[in-house]
Write a sequence for this structure.
């Protein structure tokens, strides 16, 4: 249960090695004792390292295998994640950025982005929602992106997957109303993380910790959609309505 | 299946169970239609951490059995009037049984010594007091509100202003009827043994259910021992205390000469007058102590209600200005020193019952009540906790300080000899840090917090606070091996 002061007892990270997901876990771990964390990710050094770090912060960590592209394994992943009890906050954090120019010309890479960033989150999202509906409490935190809000030429394959992702989780949040389960869609702008390593930084860039702080605050406040940083909301609100011929000319 | 049904109504000496209502016949249970499934939001009195749960209004024991069968994967939770502040009487995704319609007082035995009442568990203390007072009978333990059910009073082992002389509610329960997970009703009598090791399985189930937060089964009926009174009034001595040291000194030396003792303290004022308080202590008034006017109706139950708080208040109604104003008013309205004043039940016991739904004053975010006890030897820790609260910036108006007497055999019962303190804190950022820090102090000296008011403790801390937890778990696992009886509190505390 998320207790009266807003602290969850259990956390599930789908994409358990994501910088943002781990920042969320650290933030909750620092807030209250006895947090149980399920790290769902591909097995390997990164997952082991993340588990060790969270254990050192006082968390009880379980590692669960997650392979986004192996749809047949998803149900078992979710079963394993709930094996030790209710999940209070589930973060859907896995995703691929890919090389934008390669992605729209390489069918295999395009398919991989579509599967990892959209098809798998939809499949896992339905499995998660069924669990949360049964337990009648819990929050799905869907890490979307402003890239999906207005898809740009510069990374439109990625952007289109995030557009679908964003739409699915917003809709899922509506569908879950009245069941006790909730969805929070988080739309970060440019985040300095291993995903964006080596890229030129965009304006209003945020750190994973800033995204985590905003997310934790929004879960407590029971919000269903946030932008990080908050002013990004107004930037995107403007950009969304820029006419296509003009939008094409913007240096985005 | 038939054996299962018949178990629900075991043959009682003298024929028929106390709970066998005229319109329910065991043979009728099979034809009970499924209870309506309604997913509704329910919450504790603090209104924080609510839950969506299937709420079943229960009108008979047969209904309870029917609900148990439909339990599904998320179990069932008995619920009374919902005055527990936290999540003890809610069950996210599962079934919550509203037992308040099991509200019959079945018989009163006024001739025996002590007198007793046999009743269904959904009867409220308010109802019971009103019924008993005309006969000069008195409920021996009254919590801070009369709006609790007998079942809830047993399950939370509630205490009152007379804990130091009379113990908690469980001490006065002669027997109760427990609906078990298999649908049978077990009558459990208070065992003779006075140590845990001396108890047999039923004796342990008796004491495990007292304070057991509804996790051993649903209490559906009880026999409670009563006391005799000549009047419905109290003789009350009031003292204003200038600070926390003054208060603790007066309570340490004087409490034993009164049956009832409690202090309200100011948790807002800092500095020299930190911990200024109003100490009220008293005893039941005898007929000879009443003035002629009151003597005409000595057992009149005075319980005025000045209406209901509407649900219009925003968060932060309790702020620096209102908290200071309230604290000043509450302190000043008390006489500096008064001896032998006559007060009625409401004035002495339940000033908050005058206003219904007062929890709405805290706005939609709600509040939590933090009540802890530490042994008398931890005098300094107690004062440190007190100072942490006052200087935290979190504001509390309704603050109570008391001295507990000896606890009882129940492994999860809250009271133990020592100082206990209660504060009402609105839910605001940083409150978790304050409460965690308080937990740490409390645990370090072998103290604990009260489960009936808890909505935030972690399983680890809880285990440290209740060293007899394993005894309780053994009782519960024997009574309910599949953990059909569960609650959000139980999930949170890994019970």
């Amino acid at each position: 249960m998320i207790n009266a002061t807003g602290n969850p007892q259990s956390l599930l990270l789908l994409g358990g090695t994501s910088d943002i997901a781990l920042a969320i876990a650290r933030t909750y771990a620092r807030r209250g004792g006895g947090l149980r964390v399920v790290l769902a990710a591909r097995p390997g050094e990164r997952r082991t390292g993340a588990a060790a770090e969270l254990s050192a912060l006082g968390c009880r960590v379980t590692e669960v295998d997650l392979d986004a592209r192996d749809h047949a394994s998803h149900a078992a992943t979710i079963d394993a994640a709930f094996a030790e009890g209710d999940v209070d906050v589930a973060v859907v954090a896995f995703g691929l950025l890919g090389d934008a120019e390669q992605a729209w010309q390489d069918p295999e890479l395009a398919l991989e982005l579509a599967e990892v960033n959209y098809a798998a989150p939809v499949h896992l999202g339905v499995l998660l929602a069924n669990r949360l509906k049964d337990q009648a409490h819990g929050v799905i935190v869907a890490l979307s992106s402003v890239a999906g809000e207005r898809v740009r030429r510069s990374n439109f394959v990625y952007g289109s997957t995030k557009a679908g992702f964003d739409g699915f989780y917003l809709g899922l949040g509506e569908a879950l109303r009245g069941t006790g389960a909730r969805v929070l869609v988080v739309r970060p702008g440019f985040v300095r993380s291993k995903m964006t390593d080596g890229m030129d930084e965009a304006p209003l860039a945020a750190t994973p910790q800033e995204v985590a702080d905003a997310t934790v605050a929004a879960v407590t406040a029971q919000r269903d959609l946030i932008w990080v940083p908050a002013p990004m909301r107004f930037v995107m609100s403007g950009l969304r309505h820029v006419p296509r011929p003009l939008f094409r000319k913007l240096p985005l | 299946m038939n054996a299962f049904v018949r178990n629900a109504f075991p043959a009682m000496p003298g024929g028929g169970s106390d709970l066998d209502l005229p319109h329910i016949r065991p043979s009728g249970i099979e034809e009970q239609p499924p209870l309506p499934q309604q997913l509704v939001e329910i919450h504790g009195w603090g209104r924080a951490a609510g839950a969506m749960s299937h709420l079943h209004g229960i009108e008979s024991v047969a209904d309870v059995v029917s609900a148990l069968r439909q339990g599904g994967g998320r179990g069932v939770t008995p619920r009374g009037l919902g005055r527990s502040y936290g999540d003890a009487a809610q069950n996210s995704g599962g079934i919550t049984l509203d037992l308040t319609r099991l509200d019959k007082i079945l018989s009163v035995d006024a001739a025996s010594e002590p007198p007793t009442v046999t009743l269904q568990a959904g009867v409220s203390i308010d109802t019971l007091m009103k019924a008993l007072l005309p006969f000069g009978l008195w409920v021996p333990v009254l919590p801070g509100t009369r709006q609790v059910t007998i079942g809830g009073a047993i399950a939370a082992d509630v205490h009152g202003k007379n804990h130091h002389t009379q113990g908690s509610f469980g001490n006065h329960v002669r027997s109760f009827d427990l609906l078990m997970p298999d649908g049978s009703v077990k009558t459990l009598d208070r065992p003779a043994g006075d140590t845990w090791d001396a108890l047999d399985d039923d004796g342990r189930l008796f004491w495990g259910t007292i304070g057991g937060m509804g996790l051993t089964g649903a209490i559906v009926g009880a026999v409670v021992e009563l006391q005799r009174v000549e009047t419905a009034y109290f003789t009350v001595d009031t003292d204003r205390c200038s600070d926390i040291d003054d208060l603790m000194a007066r309570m340490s030396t004087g409490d034993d000469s009164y049956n009832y003792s409690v202090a309200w303290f100011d948790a807002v004022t800092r500095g020299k007058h930190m911990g200024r308080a109003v100490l009220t202590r008293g005893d039941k008034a005898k007929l000879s102590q009443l003035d002629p006017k009151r003597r005409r109706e000595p057992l009149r139950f005075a319980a005025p209600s000045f209406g209901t708080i509407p649900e219009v208040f925003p968060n932060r109604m309790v702020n620096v200005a209102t908290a200071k104003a309230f604290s000043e008013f509450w302190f000043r309205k008390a006489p500096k020193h008064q001896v032998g004043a006559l007060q009625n039940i409401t004035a002495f016991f339940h000033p908050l019952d005058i206003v219904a739904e007062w929890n709405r004053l805290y706005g939609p975010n709600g509040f939590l009540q933090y009540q802890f006890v530490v042994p008398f030897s931890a005098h300094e820790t107690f004062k440190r906790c007190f100072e942490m609260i006052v200087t935290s910036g979190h504001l509390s108006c309704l603050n109570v300080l008391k001295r507990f007497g000896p606890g009882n055999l129940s492994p999860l019962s809250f009271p133990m000899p020592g100082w206990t303190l209660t504060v009402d804190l609105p839910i605001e950022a940083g409150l978790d840090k304050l409460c965690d820090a308080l937990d740490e102090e409390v645990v370090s000296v072998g103290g604990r917090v009260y489960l009936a008011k808890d909505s935030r403790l972690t399983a680890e801390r809880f285990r440290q606070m209740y060293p007899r937890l394993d005894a309780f778990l053994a009782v519960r696992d024997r009574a309910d091996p599949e953990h059909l009886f569960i609650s959000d509190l139980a999930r949170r505390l890994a019970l």
